[in-house]
Amino acid sequence: MTQGPRTYAPALFLFLSHGVASLSANSSQGLHPLLQKMAEEITDGNYLNAFLDLIQFQSSQPWTADLSHAVLAYLNARNVAFTAPSLQAAVEHHLEQRLYQPQQLREDLRGADAQQFRTAMQCLWADRKDRWEVEGVVIDLGAIRKQALQSPGVNRSLLLITLERCFQELSSLECVEVLGKLLRGSPGSFLQPDLPERLPPGLRQDAFRNLSAVFKDLYDQTPARSQGALYSWMAGVLRASGAPDGSASWVSAENLRILGRYMVHLPLEEIMNISPMEMGLFISYDNATKQLDTVYDITPELAQAFLERIGSSDFDMRNASTVHRLGLLVCFYGDLELLDATLARVLLHQMIKCSRLRGFQARVQKLKARLLGIATENQALNETLGSLSDAIVGLTHRQLESLSPQAVDSAISTLSQVSGWTKSQVVILSAKYLAHEKVLSFHSVSQMGVLLAGVGAQAFSDMEPRALAQVLRSSLPVSALSPAQQQGILSKVTGAGAGAPGVMEVPGALFKEVSLFDLRRELGLNSTVLKEKAFRRSQALFLFELLSQTSGPAELLSAGQLVKGVACSHIDAMSADSFLALFQYFENNLSLLSPYQVNCLAWKAWEVSRSFMQPFLLAALPAHYLASMPASRCVPLLIGLGKIRLDSLVLDPHKRTLVLRKVQQCLNNSIADEYTVDIVGNLLCHLPAAIIKHGVSPRAWATALHGLRACAELSPEQGAAVRLRLLEQHGPPQNWTAETTKDLGPFLVFFSEDELSSVATKFPDILQQTASKMVGILPPKEFLWAVFESVRNSSERGSGSDPSPGCHGVEVPSSDDIFKLAEANACWAPQNLRCLEEATFLRSVELLGAVGGFLRPQLTALKEKAIQVWDTPSNWKEHHIVSLGRIALALNESELEQLDLSSIDTVASLSQQSGWTPGQATSILHGFLEDSGYGIQDLKSYHLVGLGTTLCAMNVTEISLIKISEFRVVMARIGTLLCSTPVLAEFKRKAEVVFGDPTKWSSSVLQELGTIAAGLTKEELRVLDEDLMPYFQPSAIRCLPAEIFKELSARQIAALGPENAAAATPAQRRQLRAPQLQSLQRALDGAKARPSLEAPPSASPSQTPPSQSRPGASASRALWLGCPLLVLVPTLPR
């Protein structure tokens, strides 16, 4: 490969070093004034200013070698003697200071002259040529600019100096262009409420409009209080321009257009004062509908005010063309009197977009239900099905069951695109559609869209091979399919006769389900075809090892997720040159690497080049390595750790405490300003409560709070510290504004029930919207009770017209209540749930089945209601069982035996729930075998996957009957089950039939087996090669009985790696002897398995290999990329 021009480190050093070797006495004669100025800046140590002079010169003059000589001669003539090394050292020190103290960059630009500042600004908005070459050296200003916009602290300095100086030096249009780039490339923490105060008064109209467009684009990243401040600024400018002729309000059609999404901040009185003519003019704009489609946070009151003003204009609100223009205002359409069916269908079609609203979904659902009633009045549902838009998700099971297959087939284009179907509805509709189609073909699959999730696993397996091959080549919605359905598809891959698709035809996400057994049989594998595939780690380990025999590491590491398979042996085998050249691939894919792989990477970096090593990798080495790191490396350490998830790199809580102790030491137990917040990044989430409470300065607090909002989970102690700071800053919640409450939403979980009660009373909608965003987590009981009370207090619920026996005087939940409450439904007493009205239960059963906080008495009450509504379990159909979710856990063994479990998809829906007793699992397993007529020896691979946790209920004899040909393709799935030791041991015996003697298993096999590997005997474990120990899955380590785990040798335990060592249970640890415990601690700490291979942290740093020596190579890569205005980006040969 021909090597192109090189892009090296500091431009000044490179350009001038061309002339170091051959200075001439007359070189400085006739030196261009701009270069003389550049030389003076170098003399004064102002390297940024000199670099800006260089860029300015280059923009109009060609650079030649004699100019390097001339500049150096000019410096020599003034007794400023520079050699290449001394200039390099000076520039490196300058760069380091700008990276580690980004405030200084602001000072540099504050001290730059007008031309230099103008050049810097022009570089930022790309008015200069982005890339130019001088004597084989490439300056890539585009890459420099990109890095500047992504560097902690540097971006902030550029933003502040732009606000401070730009409008004095450049035109307002140019400055707005720069601000736009900086704000779009920055986190939302830059958009603080004081930003408008920093903007100059009297902006030109075109500059104001452009800047307003930037704020509108960043609306979703802007905190609520900042949105209010920006609205006030925009409204102030627009108000100053005066009201349109004949209007009492400044809110003209054009001003509404300029406000964009900020129109939702208009006070109600302002909206009501808009003249009908201006409102009509605005609605007539071509882009008005697009604008109204984005007002996601509009409230019902404001929406209805806008609708009233539109209605008062010349637009007829009952005209279909008007309805099409309303955007999200249609979600609050109010005048339903005398509405005809045609307009109701138009409204329903427009209301598809209402799912984008932030909140008020219960209100929207109620409106849709009323419109659905109007649209279907006096008409058969079969005839109107395709014209009802997404309101059809409100149809009950009985209504869907009443549909004819022909009606479903006719409406499939609508049904297949609607979002919001429940799983049970999808089951009903897909069965109706396939009843019409008769067979699952490529055509029917391509038509079904979201309804494909309701197709049975066996139907996929029964597909004609050529049709399946076409399906795999199309855009198959793999994520919507259950594991059993996915295996149904894969069961047809390979060995299914002529036309059957091969393994390599399996698309990206589904490829992850291909078995290691099938992969090992596949021929013609190469990194190119694998690049777009998703891999399990076992697949990647096998493929990387296989392909490394014919392909180089660069090719493999650049092949997408294949990097998951790089083994320590591959990393150790790399030469120093190769490792340094390839390190970027590892760094770019850290999230795909296991803690063990990162540990191997860290050891290699330590051995190859301490000066090159990224400091954050020290956290993967034993704790004393990080402890001995000098203070001069603190900032790159903080930057590196701040960009990763610390809890996924350091799994041992004790070691994580030591790492955080070093972090606190680097911070001096305080966060002084917003620049420090930028630098620590994600580390904010791990700082101890004491620093949050006392160590974050008032100046840094607003920025820190923005960062804390993004933390996945704060500890109770951290949360208590945040709460105290917020109370100090904002006072008690009863004094908060709506904007403050919105901004502090994620922290409401840390407040007491009494404090939250005032929020529930004052801002119930905001509280409920906050709760709705907490997906996948179980909030504290106090928070759920506050949400519960807010819904109850605002509910229109009344007692039923004919209460069930025992329900007189009992509060009966409504459908709206259940919809709004989500996880807070866990606050209902069992008696409230028993008294649900039948219609409410039918409409809400799936929502209730998804509540994670229900206890057994509540689940039992809901099960009893299901039996009351649907009759005994023997009469339930698949969609009934699927809809139950967690409620099914309350079914006793007798009730489970009554269910029709002939479909593996029904069983799969049950096995997805966790918490079955052994007796219940046995009932489900035997119920499926009896109802389906299958013997265990008849089970297909997709049956095994669908049975899931109920496989753990099999006895040793039953497991032995499973066909090896089916078992071998789903071992990875079975290896996720946490079964008893005897069951795992029997599965292990079956694995031996597939992969041979355990003593000969490879790392990929061990990883593939998962918990099945916990079935190894003492004797088998004792002889297992210690190099294989890191390739157990952590779940397998946890499943090893303590009396088996203790049989591992100290060397085997030392080789477990950090992740597996962290998986050891307290019971396992108690059985270990002192040498074993010591080995376990070494593995937790990230030590090498053999202590003799470790170099002590005090050892002399290894040197960068000669072939890597280059200008600036001694500084860390983070240094060069951290100060992008001052460096050039390396262009390494691939």
Automatic annotation (TrEMBL):
| InterPro entries, sorted | Stereocilin-rel (IPR026664)
Report the coiled-coil segments. none
Instruction: Name the keywords, alphabetized.
Output: Glycoprotein, Signal
Task: From the UniProt annotation, give the residues forming the signal peptide.
Answer: 1-22
Composition bias, Low complexity: 1085-1109
Ranges for the region named Disordered are 1085-1115
Its recorded name reads Otoancorin
Say which species the protein is native to.
Pipistrellus nathusii
User: Mind giving the lineage of the organism this protein is from?
Assistant: Eukaryota, Metazoa, Chordata, Craniata, Vertebrata
